[in-house]
Design brief:
Strand content: 35-45%
Number of helices: 4
Number of strands: 17
Distance between the termini: 18 Å
Amino acid sequence: MLKKKLLALGTVTVMMAGMCVPAMAASNDPNMTVINNTPYSSSVEEGGSVTISVAPANSYYMASGFDDADDAANGVNYSFNAGGDLIDSISTSASWDDDLDVWGTALTVTAKDNVSGVASIHITNKNNSSAYIDMTVFVEPETVVSAATNVDVEVVDLRGDDASMYEYGAGLDVEAAVLNAGNPFNGDTASAQKYPTAGDALYSLMDDGTISFVQAGGYVSSITDSTGNTVTEYTTEDWTYYGWNYCVVRDGVRVAEGDIVSASVLPVQNNDDVYWAFGTWADAQDYFSELG
């Protein structure tokens, strides 16, 4: 999650720096971005469809678009980082963005019936294979999934030898966000509502009276512990980002999807261990590598 936040910060910076740079169509430009106000994380009901629209982008991550509609309709390849078994089909077509005046590719993603969970779709530009974007689609079930039981949750600050925060909850029940109005993920369009997630596991620790936290768009920005101490994301003068990262360990093995998608869409299961660690992305990865 820290890695994603770093990428987001870098994207905003280069976009601001490039505001005066004209965007011209170039099917083989070096990057990819979203168009038509497509969120990076989209929900879909089981058996339903959702459309995500992407386009080539220049070195400033400004959408430049495909050269024409034909290029747009046939301009991308896709594969799955995770969750391909949840998706029934993906079809592509040309997509025009009236605000940006660019051609992009619309990918209509159809979910299978009787499934729930998260898929990460890796989309590359056929005209430049190094230009890619990873998009998240999470499948919401028709009925709310039962709580995950006996889940352990740890919260730790990795900075320095003496951690400024450590909290732990054992044997917690983790319910879907829709069942708890006080859950910060409740009603968030970037967060799963009908199945329990690693984000909801953090709420279980909050509901236990141990902590509280703030999130936006599925990402946790700050956590306050039982003593009132708050640890909040920040960036140093040398652009080193410190923030909250997470991982899930299942049957002694780290769940790989946790490196790709946000905690607010990653499903948790009975007996999972959910870890939240504050520090740099590298700090968090070193810590998590020892857990599973």
